[in-house]
Design brief:
Distance between the termini: 61 Å
Strand content: over 45%
Low-confidence stretches: 1-31
Strand order of the largest sheet: 1-3-4-5-6-7-8-9
Oligomer: single chain
Structural class: mainly beta
Largest sheet: 8 strands, antiparallel, barrel
Order of helices and strands: HEEEEEEEEE
Helix content: 10-25%
Number of helices: 1
Number of strands: 9
């Protein structure tokens, strides 16, 4: 009888311990069922960019509209906690985004974004194979300023600024991800020393892009 009582008490204690362990496990953050976004990624992107350049010369201002295409590559690392996804991403793009404006007849100012890239933080919300996210960080670009007035000159400087954006990714398989992304860039104001008879100028470039991306998850 004593053994039966002890066995019953042990069985009840085991049940109580299992129920307590289940309650604790339920409170711990776990990856949501479905696709796991945790991993390292590499891929390519391409798209279209548009914006405006503000060129200030001797108190006056010329504002060429710029537009064109870009193509590049990116690397990223993501970590998923329940449905929250956090990570970092870096990208670099070759671009042909340019435009001109006339300050006066036969006096044309131009801006040409030759390349641009960024280093970013990324945060999103996962719904199985769909990831909605925001992205932002430090941006940099190689931007040319030019002027044609009888003779011509052009000079390129590396500008640094910031970027913010949002996007959506979809996992086609366990390793292949496709998506679309919008970004806004402010490359700040860059001072250019001109040559010959051309005046010095400050050039302030702001850019928006819309692109598609392909990534491979390792």
């Amino acid at each position: 009888m004593r053994r039966l009582t002890l066995a019953s008490a042990g069985f009840l204690a085991t049940l109580s311990g299992s129920a307590w362990a289940a309650d604790v496990a339920a409170d711990l953050p776990m990856t949501a069922p479905g696709f796991d976004w945790t991993g390292y990624y590499a891929g390519m992107q391409a798209g279209y960019g548009w914006g405006r350049s503000d060129i200030t010369v001797d108190g006056g201002s010329v504002k060429p509209d710029i537009d064109g295409g870009f193509v590049g590559g990116h690397v990223a690392g993501l970590w998923q906690f329940d449905q929250a996804v956090l990570g970092a991403e870096a990208d670099l793009n070759y671009a042909s985004i340019d435009g001109t404006a006339e300050a006066a007849p036969a006096n044309t100012f131009g801006t040409d974004v030759k390349w641009f890239g960024s280093i970013n933080a990324k945060a999103g919300y996962a719904m199985d194979r769909v990831l909605l996210y925001g992205i932002g960080g430090i941006a940099f670009a190689g931007i040319e300023t030019s002027q044609a007035s009888g003779t011509a000159f052009a000079r390129t400087r590396t500008s640094t600024g910031w970027t913010l954006g949002a996007g959506v990714d979809y996992a086609l398989s366990n390793n292949v991800v496709v998506g679309a992304q919008y970004r806004y860039y402010d490359f700040g104001k860059e001072h250019f020393d001109a040559q010959d008879t051309f005046p010095e100028r400050d050039q302030d470039v702001k850019l928006q892009t819309l692109g598609v991306n392909f990534s491979y998850k390792f």
